[in-house]
Write a structure and sequence with these properties.
The complex is a heterodimer of chains A (202) and B (623).
Chain A (H helix, E strand, L loop, with lengths): L4 E8 L4 H14 L3 E7 L8 E9 L12 E6 L2 H6 L4 E10 L6 H4 L9 H7 L3 E5 L1 H7 L6 H9 L7 H15 L4 H14 L2 H5 L1
Parallel strand pairs in A: 1-4, 4-5, 5-6
Antiparallel strand pairs in A: 1-3, 2-3
Helix pairs in contact in A: 1-6, 1-7, 5-6, 6-7, 6-8, 7-8
Chain B lengths: L11 E5 H11 L4 E4 L7 H6 L6 E4 L3 H13 L4 E6 H17 L5 E7 L13 H7 L3 E2 L4 H18 L3 E6 H4 L1 E6 L15 H4 L3 H24 L4 E3 L6 E6 L2 H8 L5 E4 L1 E3 L3 H9 L3 E5 L5 H8 L18 H11 L27 H10 L4 E4 L24 H12 L8 E7 H17 L5 E5 L29 H7 L7 E4 L4 H13 L4 E5 L15 E3 L18 E10 L5 E9 L19 E3 L15
Parallel strand pairs in B: 2-3, 2-4, 4-5, 5-7, 6-7, 10-11, 10-13, 14-15, 15-16, 16-18, 17-18
Antiparallel strand pairs in B: 1-8, 6-12, 9-11, 19-22, 20-21
Helix pairs in contact in B: 1-6, 3-4, 10-13, 15-16
Keywords (chain B): 4Fe-4S, Electron transport, Iron, Iron-sulfur, Metal-binding, Oxidoreductase, Transport
EC number (chain B): 1.2.7.8
Cofactor (chain B): [4Fe-4S] cluster
Chain lengths: 202, 623
């Protein structure tokens, strides 16, 4: 069987994890890959944990990524990235938004938020590229651009050119909200730069 | 929700299992499709409602949806209903006699099992219904099969004159894959044929029909033996041959690409002779089924030696990472230690109520009451069982808050004599199955205070319309139920019915305190809409004046996710008691100004944010 690419996207309900994975899937489909995508998101709209599995290649069977099988872990929130770090292959790469969403359960003092989730992941020997995508998105004018920033950050670590993903992002906005195309183009490139992506591609 | 849209032509599409079923239902020429929302099946009807050429509806419960589908089948139309697993329990009364009458127009029942329990109160295996009702069960393994088997199910239904169950799981409904679709075929209904012996199921008519049910089952069994939906995938490693149904086929093929597999698509009645032949070609048979050992038991009863739940878990999904170690153990091999990093301990992140959710006011109030037993129900408000409120004591099934509250009232002994019994139920759940319970309370003179949380949406499944919103599945205006009048008609005295704003905490608290004192049924209806629906209007957001915050933490007890603790401290009071302090800030960009947290704030530290920021919430972006 040929190589299957496994991407796990994780975050908090409402952050756009599923939409981002959908766009990644659209990019893979545009190249003719067989693609499967699955979520565990029962009540995720209510601020719960959400993960989205994306698998693509010549022929995909099971939609689920097994622990230790993800080539890429895209963490939309830092504690969530840590929660799912066991899903990464030992030689996989994690791209992490170091921004935090602190849940009521932590505010109530019942649990602690990890001191430095990214450092904890690195201490496990994982390759982690982290930056504050939430703040970057707010600087760019809208927290909702965080989604596109994260897609930009992973664009140079896919088995296809970054431009394919960028076109998939822009195509989505082109049909639904054309006024947002330029903002998303900027957010995508900002995400690439934040993790040194362009240098990687060159 | 948009009205009917242009339907894409036959194409290669990226569809979820739910999308694929909807597409096939439409292509099959179905004229009537009905459902009650329920995860993971909800999207099927949402998607179908956007197609033209058929009647789609949210029914008030699953039983009604099935009866609507049966009626359409009686007049010769192709018909469809969809529900989650527990919905079929509700609809089963109709199913168990529908199987005696049989059907006319093709009738397909899609039932979605929540294997893994991402959003349900139990994990049950709907394949049992096929055995119980003697109807065929089809089990797709991915979106393409969900599409193809839905079309096949209509044909099978019409050949056998039987309802057909299409059994889905979360891992079919919510997985997207590439699907090749076709076009709609119109099917003109043959018309209703008056025939009491067929449709009027009194004993004299039903008894002669029972044999037809078993003849039909025999025909289905014969079909299963030759159906292309059941097939043998050859494999070179014959130590273990796998028998799979539903999504487990993909998991087995993923984990054991060289093993022989017998794949069941038409899994009930099972093709036992084909399975016997398969078993003879391998050393050992392992049945991989979610969740109950149904096929395993049937195979063993037929004398086919096999393993199943003796080596595999009986709970949850049988994904490759579950299968691999189990199969290694069965082969007598050592299970290697994983190479990846171990799972890390991180705080739990349970679902929360939304910022400004009207239920926050209700649960904050309930959490301040003493000596109260709170009988709960199914919906967003079930989250009231969690922190910080801990103000929901039971959750069983749709509408159960009513009956269990009455039973508590009637059954209580001395120890609970002074307890107040409150039942909490949402608008849609009330109409689904709660109304009957309220009637039982009034009729039997129960002492129960009912909190009817009318947020004008089926919240937990995504804000669908219901008879309380006055809009149908297309968002178009229709009859709107008046809850106060309805409760009065069900026997609650007019003066015991209150319609209140749940954002006004003192009013809510007073009403609850007074009504729980009066020993007769009362209903408090809250009237604020769900914050996730289109019609929700946000107000000016709030902020905390840091120097005025005393750290009392009262606002944190409201449970709003926009309130964050910035600093903790401890003080020793004059009485010598040590008190924890929590100083807070409000995520102003997320706050929509409901004002709930302002009310318990004694030092008036929570004030309007000025200027109002325009940054949108990370966590709760409204559709």
């Amino acid at each position: 069987m040929s190589k299957i690419t496994n991407i796990l996207v994780c975050g908090v309900g409402g952050q756009g994890v599923m939409t981002a994975t959908e766009i990644l899937a659209e990019a893979a489909i545009s190249l003719g890959f067989d693609v499967k995508k699955t979520e565990v998101a029962g009540m995720s709209q209510r601020g719960g944990v959400v993960t989205s599995h994306l698998r693509f290649g010549d022929a995909v069977l099971s939609p689920q990524i097994a622990p230790g099988e993800a080539d890429l872990l895209i963490g939309f929130e830092s504690a969530e990235a840590l929660r799912w770090s066991h899903m990464l292959r030992p030689d996989g790469v994690a791209l992490v938004n170091s921004g935090r969403i602190v849940p009521p359960i932590v505010n109530l003092g019942l649990f602690d938020y990890p001191e430095d989730p990214v450092a904890q992941m690195r201490a496990l020997g994982l390759t982690v590229h982290a930056f504050d995508a939430s703040s970057l998105a707010i600087q760019l004018g809208n927290i909702r651009l965080g989604n596109t920033v994260m897609l930009g950050a992973c664009a140079d670590r896919l088995p296809f050119p970054a431009e394919v993903l960028r076109d998939a992002v822009l195509a989505r906005f082109g049909t639904r909200k054309p006024q947002l195309v330029e903002a998303n183009r900027g957010a995508f490139e900002a995400g690439r730069r934040a993790v040194g992506g362009e240098a990687l591609a060159a | 929700m948009p009205a009917t849209q242009t339907v894409p032509a036959a194409a290669r599409m990226f569809l979820s299992g739910n999308d694929a079923v909807a597409r096939a239902v439409w292509e099959a020429g179905t004229r009537v499709a009905a459902a009650y929302p329920g995860t993971p099946s909800t999207e099927i009807l949402e998607i179908l409602s956007r197609y033209s050429g058929l009647h789609t509806e949210w029914s008030i419960n699953e039983k009604v949806s099935m009866e609507v589908a049966l009626g359409a089948s009686m007049v010769g139309a192709r018909a469809f209903c969809a529900m989650k697993h527990v919905g079929l329990n509700v609809a089963s009364d109709a199913l168990m006699t529908m199987t005696v009458t049989g059907t006319e127009g093709g009738l397909v029942i899609a039932v979605a099992d929540d294997v893994g329990m991402s959003s349900s109160q139990n994990e049950q295996d709907s394949r049992y219904w096929g055995r119980f009702a003697h109807v065929p069960v089809l089990e797709p393994a991915d979106s393409q099969e969900a599409y193809a088997m839905t079309l096949a199910a209509f044909d099978l239904s019409e050949r056998l004159k039987s309802p057909v169950i299409l059994r889905l799981t979360t891992r079919i409904c919510h997985v997207k894959g590439v699907v090749h679709t076709g076009e709609r075929n119109e099917v003109e209904p043959k018309g209703f044929v008056k025939d009491p012996r067929h449709w009027v199921m009194v004993p004299g008519n039903a008894k002669p029909r029972l044999p037809t049910m078993f003849e039909r089952e025999a025909a289905a069994r014969a079909e299963a033996e030759v159906s292309p939906l059941n097939f043998h995938v050859e494999g070179s490693d014959r130590r273990i041959g796998f028998v799979t149904s539903g999504p487990t086929f993909m998991h087995v093929r993923e984990a054991f690409p060289d093993a022989p597999v017998f794949k069941l698509g038409l899994s009930c009645p099972p093709p036992l002779e084909s399975l016997r032949r398969f078993a003879a070609t391998v050393d050992t048979v392992l049945v991989v089924e979610e969740t109950e050992p149904l096929l395993e038991t049937e195979m063993k009863a037929a004398g086919i030696a096999c393993h199943g739940k003796d080596v595999l878990p009986r709970i949850g999904e049988l994904a490759p990472d579950v299968l691999e170690p189990a199969v290694r153990r069965l082969r007598g091999e050592v299970v290697p230690a994983p190479e990846h990093v171990p799972a890390q301990q991180v705080f739990p992140r349970p679902p929360t109520m939304c910022v400004a959710c009207p239920h926050l006011g209700v649960y904050y109030t309930l959490s301040q009451m003493r000596n109260v037993i709170i009988s709960g129900d199914i919906g967003c408000y079930t989250l009231g069982a969690g922190h910080p409120w801990n103000a929901l004591d039971t959750c069983i099934s749709m509408g159960a808050s009513m009956g269990t509250a009455l039973g508590m009232d009637k059954g209580r002994g001395k120890v609970d004599e002074n307890k107040k019994i409150v039942a909490v139920i949402g608008d849609s759940t009330f109409m689904h199955m709660g109304m009957q319970g309220l009637l039982d309370i009034t009729w039997n003179r129960g002492n129960v205070t009912v909190l009817l949380l009318d947020n004008r949406a089926v919240g937990m499944t995504g804000g669908q319309d219901n008879p309380g919103t006055g809009r149908d599945i297309h968002g178009e205006e229709t009859t709107r139920v008046d809850f106060a009048k309805l409760c009065e008609a069900l026997g609650v005295k007019k003066e015991r019915i209150h319609v209140l704003d749940p954002y006004e905490l003192p009013v809510l608290f007073k009403a609850l305190r007074e009504e729980t004192k009066i020993e007769e049924p009362s209903v408090i209806i809250t009237n604020r809409p769900c914050v996730l629906i289109d019609h929700y209007q946000p107000a000016k957001s709030y902020t905390v004046e840091e120097d005025r915050c005393t750290g009392c933490g009262n606002c944190v007890e409201v449970g709003c996710p926009a309130i964050h603790v910035t600093r903790r401290d401890k003080v020793v009071k004059a009485s010598g008691k040590e008190v924890d302090l929590s100083f807070v800030r409000i995520e102003t960009s997320a706050c929509t100004g409901c004002g709930l947290c302002v009310q318990p704030c004694a030092p008036e530290a929570i004030v309007h944010a000025d200027p109002v920021q325009n940054v949108q919430s990370v966590q709760f972006v409204r559709k």
